[in-house]
Design brief:
This protein is an alpha/beta fold. It is built from nine helices and six strands. The longest helix has 16 residues, at 22-37. The radius of gyration is 17 Å and the shape is globular.
């Protein structure tokens, strides 16, 4: 099932050997059964949306989430993003508030972050699927091995990518990134629990990111 879903060629060519590994075959069997017997998110066609909206060659920024939203009609395959017309979850609200404070962009009506992905922001969840209303239900089934290989591949094959690592989980991915040729920005998670303790607001990641891109003579992100 997973292997047959459309995946942008720039990623398919680089990740093909992952699909053939035993862990991925077991992961695929698990995901197929889950989608047959349970309500799961995102829609099957959106599982690889992060890759299909941002080709490997275009990746300038990587933002790492944990797993998809598990509420009805929320997840669209991009971390922290929701479908058009869906109420913004608390973490996304705090992201938009920080952008507003950091670079003065008005709070947007849409929580769909495809507009970021199309500018070279890879919005990667560590786990790409989840059972409805059960956060973390598809963790430790193999997705993390797959997405870690994605991060490693970006680190190895590209230069000057900006990795935004928000919260303890994302910060653990630093071991996969060559800091001598990439830029790593770390801060607290945008969830209310972290943000209300002072670990999110004021991080200025969005202006910092654009300053790095400007210094590299690359096009900045319209957040």
């Amino acid at each position: 099932m997973i292997e047959n879903i459309h995946l942008h060629n720039s990623w398919k060519n680089r990740l093909q050997e992952e699909f053939c590994k035993p862990y991925f075959e077991q992961l695929e069997q698990f995901v197929v059964k889950e989608y047959e017997k349970q309500i799961c998110y995102p829609d099957v066609s959106d599982i690889f949306s992060a890759f299909n909206h941002c080709a490997f060659e275009d990746v300038q920024v990587v933002i790492i989430g944990q797993d998809p939203y598990h509420g009805q009609n929320q997840a669209n395959g991009l971390c922290f993003s929701v479908k058009e017309g869906i109420k913004h979850p608390p973490s996304l609200i705090n992201i938009f508030k920080e952008i507003e404070n950091d670079i003065g962009i008005d709070y947007p009506a849409s929580g769909n972050l495809e507009r970021w992905a199309k500018q070279g922001v890879l919005l990667l969840n560590a786990t790409l699927t989840v059972r409805a209303h059960e956060a973390g239900s598809h963790q430790k089934k193999g997705w993390e091995l797959f997405t870690d290989s994605v991060i490693s591949k970006i680190s190895e094959e590209k230069r000057n990518v900006i990795f935004m690592l928000w919260g303890g989980f994302a910060k653990k991915k630093v071991k996969l990134i060559d800091s001598s040729k990439h830029h790593i920005l770390t801060t607290g998670h945008p969830s209310p629990l972290s943000a209300n303790r002072g670990y999110w607001f004021g991080n200025k990641h969005f202006s910092t990111c654009n300053k790095i891109l400007e210094d590299l003579n690359n096009k900045f992100i319209t957040w």
